[in-house]
Amino acid sequence: MTINTNDLLNSILESLSRIDHTKLEALPDINLYMDQVITFMERELYPTKRHEENPILTKTMINNYVKNNLLPPPEKKKYSKEHILTLVFIYYFKSVLSISDIQNILNPLTDEYFGEKSSPTLEEIYDSIFRLEAHQVERLKEIIREEYIISESAFSDLENLDEEDAAFLQKFTFICLLNFDVYTKKLLIEKIIDSMKKPETSKNSKTNKRKRS
Question: Where is the signal peptide (predicted)?
Answer without folding.
Answer: none
